[in-house]
Every structure is written in C-alpha cells, then in structure tokens.
Amino acid sequence: MARIVVDLDERMLALAQRRLGTKTRRDTINRALAIAASTSADDRARGLAWLQDNAESILDFEVLEERERPGR
C-alpha cells in the first residue's frame, strides 16, 4: 500500500460512500479504485450499447426536456 496525500471533493466522497455502502474514506476510495480497475472498455461499450437500446423504456424524455428548459 502507498500513502498519498490528495485533495478530495468531500461531497463526491460522501456520495460514493453512501452508494458503495462503505464505512471509511479509505474503504470508499479502495472500493472505487477496484471497480474502476475491473471495468474494461468492452464492459463500458456493452453497457452503453444496452443503454442506447433501452433508453426509451427507462428514461422519460419529456421530464428531461422540462428540466433542461431555462428558468427552471
């Protein structure tokens, strides 16, 4: 293990901690690194292709358009 001093976005770290269900900063960072290292370009490409094929059944584009309008 290496000891490294870095500046972290505290909000992103807290969000990652909640999503990953980890208890400590160290566990959160190590789990996120393990996930990133284990996800291949092929996995990402398959996931993106699946999302493109299924987006209309998952996403409500009218709601998304409404949220993008200025003044909201």
Could you provide a short overview of the structure?
It contains four helices and no strands.
Structural overview:
- The chain has two domains: 1-38; 40-72, no CATH class.
- It is built from four helices and no strands.
- The protein has helices at 10-20, 25-38, 41-58, 61-68.
| Unreliable residue stretches | none
Distance between the termini: 47 Å
How much β-strand is present in the residues? under 5%
Q: For the report, how would you describe the main beta sheet?
A: none
* Structural class determined from secondary elements: mainly alpha
Set down the secondary structure blueprint.
Elements: H1 10-20, H2 25-38, H3 41-58, H4 61-68
Keywords:
72 residues; mainly alpha; 2 domains
